[in-house]
Amino acid sequence: MKAIDIRNKYLNFFERHGHKIIPSAPLIPENDPSVLFTTAGMQPLVPYLLGEKHPEGTRLTDYQKCLRTNDIEEVGDNRHLTYFEMLGNWSLGDYFKKESIQMSFEFLTKELEIPVEKLSVTCFAGNEEAPKDEEAAKYWKEAGIPEERIYFLKDNWWIAGEEGPCGPDTEIFYDTGKEPCSKNCNPDCDCGKYVEIWNNVFMQYFKHKDGTLTKLKQHNVDTGLGLERMTMLLQGKKTPYETELFAPMMEHLEKLAKVDDIHSRRIVAEHLRASMMIIADGGRPSNIDRGYILRRLIRRMIRHLRKLEINLEETKDLIYLNIEILKEMYPYLEENKQTITQVIIEEKDKFVATLSHGEREFEKAVAKAEQEGKKSIDGKTVFRLYDTFGFPPEITEELAKEQGFKINMQEFEELFKMHQEKSRLGSEQKFKGGLAEQNEITTAYHTATHLLHEALREVLGEHVKQNGSNITSERLRFDFTHPQKMTKEEIQKVEDLVNEQIQKDLAVTCEEMSYEDAKKSGAIGLFTDKYGDKVKVYAIGDFSKEICGGPHVSHTGELGKFKIKKEESSSSGVRRIKAILIQE
Ligand code: SER
């Protein structure tokens, strides 16, 4: 069965079971600056999992384009992909464990005709926060999975990131038929006998930043089935590269390559596909965030084309071939052919220029080392080549080897880590508070957010903690922990308190100190685990003190009049305020 047939069978099956088919959200999330790419089918559905009404109802199904970059370095082995498609079905406060398990079982055994003997499942073993999921196990048994193939694991809990809707999950495994690696071989083991094919999450809870769990308003089901993996298993293949999604590209690369390296061929095929999907959804290469991931994918692909000794002039034909391979699944790639080609070719040309520039700099470094009678190049030079000229350290290493030079990779790694830490902190500060754009207005809203935070603590109590913040040029949005709806009087008090501080025209000052000192000084701190050693503390007169990356206005008088427009529930135990500043 081809991938597209599995996808269609899936959507049709769930449609027959009362689900509405919804379109895949773009790979680049809309209105969500906190993540770079869509990494799971549930991600675009978070508001609905938290209780907002979905216009299509309470049973949904889709295929979702996903990109996960945490395993980028693993790509090239026989299983990791950055881009993949996730098939999913959701219950938004509709069915729960029983029907979810029944439907999954029926789909696998009847629609895909997988013999029951091939299936094993795992359920949540329980911990101090939530009980063992005996219920899920019972439904599996009723469906036809024998007890000895139902395992209980502590890890069967799913959450995207550190905060959000979550719950116990039950995972379905496919037995590849490999010999067991030991007497205790089971789905938890990594030997490759059992491959996870489907994850059904029973979302009952919300995990807050401070680690506490609260019950969600409704019981949801969120499931995810990796299409490439399922295709590979049903076709009896060992890697996704042997399926129709990659095989024609792999064969073509093998023909073109002068060097036989399957690892490099896979990297080229995988990164080309991922890059094309990102570009088709509007991504462009740059030096930050999403653009940087795309740049890395394209450059890594080019590097491996070079390694395979494939002429880079072939790049265009590789793109065209990939459109042929993928257009049945993603017809819009054809419409975007010109843009995709242009973006990739431009990036390739830039990279080639970088490489020749870097090679010249490398030669200079070699000449200098030779003058000094050294046969090695220090890590600082490798880092400078990388940082200033974008010259990949692997290439420096390659060239050095060719010329009989050693390079100090360890020193490079240390410098690289320091650099990464710096840019990590930088981008966190950017994302913190959803400050996607920074201008005078958003800066004013940022300061107003600090005033609001402190005013809420004074009026409602110190249990108030920031749970999320998002700022646009039109308004601020602030989520905070508080168990009940605010009364009209409380809202008025908070608003008045903020306006009083604005009228006082308090000075906003900033001091850098260690995280410990900041805590001692009484500054409110969030995201504790993400802070570096040194933090900035912004004080607004004597009224508020908060750890924050800024920027802020210099005096509160610049803010205008503060008005709360809305106070509503965000999720259980979390309230949301929307407020505006009016310039008078
Ligand atoms: N959200 C779960 C996962 O990504 C199920 O869809 O595995």
Question: What can you tell me about this protein's structure?
Answer:
This is Alanine--tRNA ligase. It is an enzyme of class 6 (ligase). Its EC number is 6.1.1.7. It holds the Pfam family tRNA_SAD. This protein is an alpha+beta fold. The chain has 17 helices and 18 strands. α9 (315-326) packs across α11. The protein is globular. Bound molecules: serine. The site of serine has 10 residues, from β8 and β9.
Overall mean confidence score, pLDDT: 90
What small molecules accompany the polymer chains?
serine
Structural class: alpha+beta
Low-confidence stretches: 427-437
> If helices are DSSP runs of H or I spanning 4 or more residues, what is the number of helices?
17
| Strand count | 18
Question: How helical, in percent, are the residues?
Answer: 40-55%
Query: What global shape is seen?
Result: globular
Question: Mind sketching the topology for me?
Answer:
Layout: H1 3-16, E1 20-21, H2 46-49, E2 59-67, E3 83-92, H3 97-111, E4 119-124, H4 134-143, E5 150-153, E6 157-159, E7 164-175, E8 194-207, E9 213-226, H5 227-234, H6 247-256, H7 262-280, H8 289-307, H9 315-326, H10 332-335, H11 337-371, E10 376-377, H12 379-389, H13 393-402, E11 406-407, H14 409-431, H15 440-460, E12 466-471, E13 476-481, H16 488-503, E14 508-514, H17 515-520, E15 534-540, E16 544-547, E17 561-571, E18 574-582
Parallel strand pairs: 1-2, 4-5, 10-11
Antiparallel strand pairs: 2-3, 3-9, 4-7, 6-7, 7-8, 8-9, 12-13, 13-18, 14-15, 15-16, 17-18
Bound molecules: serine (SER).
